[in-house]
Amino acid sequence: MQQEEKLKTGTTTVGILYKDGVVLASDSKSTLGSLVASKTTQKIYQVDDRIAVTTAGGSGDTQALIRILKAEINLYKLTRNKEFTVKAAVTLLSNILSNNRWYPYLAMLIVGGVDKDGNHIYSIDPVGGSEEEDKFTSTGSGSPFAYGALEDTYKDNLAREEAVQLVINAVRAAQERDIFSGGRDIVVAIIDKTGTEIINQNIRDLSRK
After folding, report:
1. ∠ CA 187-171-168 to the nearest 5 degrees?
2. Statement: residue 4 has pLDDT above 70
3. CA spacing 20 to 30 A to 54: which of 29, 107, 117, 124?
4. Whole-number Å distance between alpha carbons of 195 and 192
């Protein structure tokens, strides 16, 4: 059991605001202690048309939270026929985490999305504390290195391609220095008013550029 709890605890995830929406990114490496358990782990989940969540922490806990969130969003939209806002997703996740604080989910989350109120990114800690970010955020063991790249390069009103390149650079910076971040791909989710696009950037292909 102790070994299982170590699974997928090393991660780098980032989220930034750009001119027309939100861009999220993550590495794809998962670890079991000193063993690389997977090089293609999913850490970004689209939970609604224009809302996505990045996950860092225990794989079982984060996957359970995503299943609950998706089910609640689908139920809300089915019964009320209304848009599910980014803030509503954050509030729901925060309440779940807060209610389980004595037996906490091992999860650090970034929620990003676009709704009627604009473009949003939030970070949520394992006991339900949430904060809306006005520029960017990062979670996971590689976040100190990712923050260095974000602080150095981020500017207001980034274009789409600039934002995508910035999150890729931030994750790559973490992969260079954090032994628990890596994997085969950098996964990027681009969210704007038209929907969500998720792309995989192979590390080897990026190294050739």
Report:
1. 60
2. no
3. 117
4. 6
Catalytic residue among 9, 11, 41, 62: 11
Range of the domain at 195: 2-208
**């670890």: which residue's tokens?**
31
Query: Could you give the number of structural domains in the chain?
Result: 1
Residue 1 has pLDDT above 50, yes or no: no
Instruction: Find, among 190, 199, 142, 150, the residue nearest to 170 by Cα.
Output: 150
Q: How far apart are CA 60 and CA 137, in angstroms?
A: 23
3 state DSSP class of 47: strand
Q: Which of 133, 144, 174 is nearest to 28 (CA)?
A: 174
Question: pTM (2 decimals)?
Answer: 0.91
- Residue 11 is among the residues annotated as catalytic for this protein: yes
Can you tell me whether residue 187 is helix, strand or coil? strand
CATH code for the domain of 59:
3.60.20.10
Strand-by-strand arrangement of the 51-57 sheet = 44-48, 51-57, 107-115, 118-124, 130-133
